[in-house]
Amino acid sequence: MADELRMIGDVRLLEFRGKIVRDAGDRDMRERFCAAQAGGGAKFVFDLREVSFVDSAAIGEMVACLKRARNKEGNLKLILVRGGRPDELIKLAALDRVFEIYTDEQRAIESFSD
Fold this sequence. Notes:
Layout: E1 3-8, E2 11-20, H1 24-38, E3 43-54, H2 56-71, E4 75-79, H3 85-92, E5 100-102, H4 105-110
Parallel strand pairs: 2-3, 3-4, 4-5
Antiparallel strand pairs: 1-2
Helix pairs in contact: 1-2
């Protein structure tokens, strides 16, 4: 899994690629999120458009990151490809009611100013 952190205004956008699975994948997600949060961030977007596979550990870690963000008066939003593996699992777990989900970067970023 390769990923990148970009700052767009005061929003930290973490891009993920490949597979996010138990052990290395979910641990890397947690470490990168916590490092971004330690930099003083409260607004986060996970861009999962290039993720081909996630498992329950990855979904659990996304929920944990959302909780960490909200505990610091922030939020975490997702960018997904509709019908892709992450989207399917999030819907299956009914987490589409918990996460704000977008299909493009600009709308996700702009949603923080609403």
